[in-house]
Amino acid sequence: MTKAKTSQRRKFLHQAAAGAVATGALAAPMIGRAQTITSLRFQSTWPAKDIFHEYALDFAKKVNDMTGGELKIEVLPAGSVVPAFGLLDAVSKGTLDGGHGVLGYHYGKQNALALWNSGPAFGMDANMLLSWHKYGGGKELLAKLYASIGITTVQSFLYGPMATQPLGWFKKPVTKPEDFKGLKYRTNGLAIDLFTAMGAAVNALPGGEIVPAMDRGLLDAAEFNNATSDRLLGFPDVSKVCMLQSYHQSAETFEIMFNKPKYDALPEKMKAIIANAVEAASADMSWKAIDRYSKDYIELQTKDNVKFYKTPDSVLQVQLKLWSEILEKKSGENALFKEIVESQKVFAERTVKWDQDTYVSRRMAVSHFFGAKAPTKS
Q1: Residue pair 223/248 in contact by the 8 Å Cβ criterion
Q2: Helix, coil or strand: residue 43
Q3: Does 158 score more than 70 pLDDT?
Q4: Where are the beta strands (DSSP E) in 160-240?
Q5: What is the C-alpha separation between 53 and 46, in angstroms, rounded?
Q6: Beta strands, E only, the chain
Q7: Which phi and psi (to 5°) does residue 203 adopt?
Q8: Rounded distance, CA 308 to CA 242, Å?
Q9: 334 CB contacts (<8 Å, ≥6 apart)?
Q10: Is-contact 263 153, C-beta < 8 A?
Q11: In contact, 296 and 228? CB cutoff 8 Å
Q12: Number of CB atoms found within 10 A of residue 58's CB
């Protein structure tokens, strides 16, 4: 081998070795970063078999996947650490790192919190309520409301627009407002005030306790949420009559909460991922709900022999009348309640009119494509 070739070969080997060293120097920190894992323990307010708990798991998976495993959220079902109604205290104190529930479950701490899940909503559906929360001042009002009761260590995210909830499960069809007189009935949030005003003896129970209470005769009737949840929780085992449509919870959303000190300690990148995962989970949840609820609505009728009835207009009209009275009374007692109600009402007046003026009637289209066919002429 000539001296020139030997020199070239040494130069090549030297450059290759230097490149390998540089590559190793770059690779080492990446390995170190991948080994930094933050784990957060969450609890939902739902039984493990409920689709609501599945929604909580869906959100956690989105965060876990989007962070590449650097942040791992583990979600436990209701009662694993604290009772369902104890979630807010547990997260604020750091007993849990976070949780999944609804604002109405905190009704006992401040009744205005329920305006995000069981108030009249002034004609808004749940997606419009979320629009008000993000763009119409609701988010700021919720933070102000939490601070008013000393909750400053919770980072709250609202998401997951729910469909209008059934009036509930009964022993026989509801035909008039007077049917609620003396009825032992389960609901939550501000709907407690509504059905109490209708004459019912109301008991607020978490989801997993409702069917056993009906089975033991402690309740005559109850509402929970939707065809899938109600079916999974066993409502068809204790009742074969379900009344559809009501104004008691026509616009409800879920709440994802973090212990704020734990949340604030996360890198900014993680916080951005969480915020975007909330909105991704919100969209996915609403799509999954359409698919699953409609399937279970059919199976409740075909497999479980449930009869569905539309709530009479007379009952709906009484609900609206009572809502006006409840809002006036509570607004006079609670300045923050009044501020939230007025904010929702102003937003609803604009957006609901736009919504109704803009969207074409789906009922007409359904009647055209799936209604009774005219007899064929011979």
Answers
A1: yes
A2: strand
A3: yes
A4: 168-170, 184-186, 201-203, 221-222
A5: 5
A6: 38-44, 71-76, 98-101, 154-159, 168-170, 184-186, 201-203, 221-222, 241-244, 254-259, 307-310
A7: -130, 125
A8: 5
A9: 111, 112
A10: no
A11: yes
A12: 18
Calpha distance 141→166 (Å, rounded): 28
Average pLDDT of span 224-245:
97
pTM of the complete model: 0.87
Q: Which two tokens stand for residue 277?
A: 């995962």
Beta strands 184-186 and 168-170 are: unpaired
Longest dimension (CA), the chain: 109
Give the pLDDT band (50/70/90) at residue 36.
confident
38-44/71-76 β-pairing: parallel
Q: What is the dihedral of CA 276, 280, 286, 290, to 10 degrees?
A: 180
The string over 95-119, giving b where at least 16 C-beta atoms fall within 10 Å of a residue's C-beta and e elsewhere, is: ebbbbbbbbbbbbebbbbbbbbbbb
Q: Using one digit for the tens of pLDDT, what is the confidence trace for 171-217?
A: 999 999 999 999 999 999 999 999 999 999 999 998 889 999 999 99
The percentage of the chain sitting over the pLDDT mark of 90, rounded to a whole number, equals 86
Q: DSSP secondary-structure letter at 251?
A: S
Question: Helix, strand, or coil here: 154?
Answer: strand
Task: Identify the CA nearest to 234 among candidates 172, 306, 161, 308.
Answer: 306
Are 240 and 305 within 8 A, CB to CB? Answer: yes
Mean pLDDT of 8-30: 44
Model pLDDT for residues 295-322, shown as the tens digit of each residue:
999 999 999 999 999 999 999 999 999 9
3-state SS, residue 168: strand
* Integer CA distances (angstroms), 30 to 25, 68, 273, in order: 9, 13, 20
Domains by residue range for the chain, with CATH: 37-161+252-291 (3.40.190.170), 168-248+307-358 (3.40.190.170)
Rounded CA separation 164/160 (Å): 13
User: Are 43 and 74 spatial neighbours (Cβ–Cβ below 8 Å)?
Assistant: no
Secondary structure in 3-state letters for 65-128: HHCCCCEEEEEECCCCCCCHHHHHHHHHHCCCCEEEECHHHHCCCCHHHHHHCCCCHHHCCHHH
Q: Please tell me the distance from the alpha carbon of residue 43 to that of residue 96, in angstroms, as a whole number.
A: 7
Output the pLDDT for position 129: 98
